[in-house]
Structure formats: structure tokens, C-alpha cells
Design brief:
With 170 residues, the protein is of the alpha+beta class. The termini are far apart. It has one domain. Strands 4, 6, 7 and 8 form a 4-stranded antiparallel β-sheet that branches. The protein has a 3-stranded mixed β-sheet with strand order 2-1-5, with no helix packed on it. The protein has helices at residues 2-32, 73-77, and strands at 36-42, 46-50, 58-60, 82-84, 90-91, 100-104, 109-114, 117-118, 140-143, 149-150, 155-158, 161-164. It is 21% helix and 28% strand. The protein contains 2 helices and 12 strands; from the N terminus they run αβββαβββββββββ.
């Protein structure tokens, strides 16, 4: 009886383990595949920082220059943008080369900073250009090319009528 139960549960356990491995691999590649910081135009927030895959980069208001306050479970939801060892992050598309640097992170990794502040991704952004983390709990915001938080949507001009869009996520 016990052997039958093990044989019945074995495929479920194997599939679960494989799914967890794929998820962890995808998360790791999202975090450290290529630490190029570039710029993308957001319809709501203007020019914002993104990683090489076009995923939006965020700043956490509890972070300080050179200090990452998002650890443990926080880092699962908000993965840091990482580089391995002595690899240097790069910039393109209008991001400021003088503003990019790294700070030490666990396991021989370095976390990418911009204007001194750590950069994070949001695990809820599944596609390039998404900004689902914007305004989360009033502490997470997209970053402009100067390294400042973008707390409100920018004004856009639609055929002569100026409108303001606003994010209400969080």
C-alpha cells in the first residue's frame, strides 16, 4: 500500500520540483543575465530606467545611498539587479554612465546602483515595459534618467489636450 502511494505521488513531486527549478532559473536570469541599464519611454511616466530585457527598474524609498534595505522575502518580490563578481554594469540609451555603480551583495554578487541607490525589478512585471510595481505600498517607484523617483505620472499631450495619467497600483 505504501509503495503504491509513493508511486502515485512521485510524478507530482517531480513536476513540482521541475516547476520550482524553472521558476528559480527564470528569476535568476531576470536578476543577473545582463546588468545593462538603459532607458525606455513609458506612456505614463516618461523616460524611465529598464534592464537589458526592457523590464522596468524601481527604487525602494527605504533604501539609502549604498545601502539595500530590501532583503529576505522582500527581495523575492523585488529582486535586485545583480552582476557577478567584478563584472561592471553598463549603460545605454541615455542612462548616465557616471551614475552607475555597484554595492556588495551576498554570494559573490554585486547589486547595481544608479545615482547611489540600489535598483530593483518587480516580480509582478512579466513583460517588458510593465510598471505594475509603481507606487506599491507607497514605497516603490520607477526611476528617471537622473536617478530620481517618479512618484506621479507625467503630463502628456493628446492632440492639443493635456492630460495627466495616474497610477493607483498598490
Amino acid at each position: 500500500m505504501r509503495g503504491r502511494a509513493i508511486r502515485a505521488l512521485l510524478p507530482v513531486v517531480v513536476v513540482g520540483a521541475l516547476a520550482a527549478g524553472v521558476s528559480m532559473a527564470a528569476n535568476a536570469s531576470m536578476r543577473s543575465s545582463n546588468a545593462t541599464v538603459t532607458v525606455a519611454k513609458s506612456a505614463s511616466f516618461g523616460l524611465v530606467l529598464v534592464n537589458s530585457g526592457g523590464h522596468t527598474l524601481y527604487r525602494y524609498t527605504l533604501d539609502r545611498k549604498g545601502v539595500n534595505a530590501c532583503t529576505g522575502g522582500c527581495a523575492t518580490l523585488w529582486p535586485p539587479l545583480l552582476v557577478k563578481g567584478s563584472t561592471q554594469p553598463t549603460v545605454s540609451g541615455g542612462a548616465g554612465a557616471s551614475l552607475i555603480a555597484t554595492i556588495k551583495a551576498p554570494h559573490g554578487m554585486h547589486m547595481v546602483t544608479y545615482a547611489g541607490f540600489p535598483l530593483h525589478l518587480f516580480s509582478g512585471d512579466s513583460k517588458a515595459g510593465e510598471t505594475k510595481g509603481q507606487g506599491f505600498q507607497g514605497k516603490w517607484f520607477v526611476v528617471n534618467t537622473k536617478g530620481a523617483l517618479v512618484k506621479q505620472a507625467v503630463k502628456t499631450n493628446n492632440g492639443g489636450a493635456t492630460t495627466t495619467t495616474k497610477s493607483t497600483w498598490g
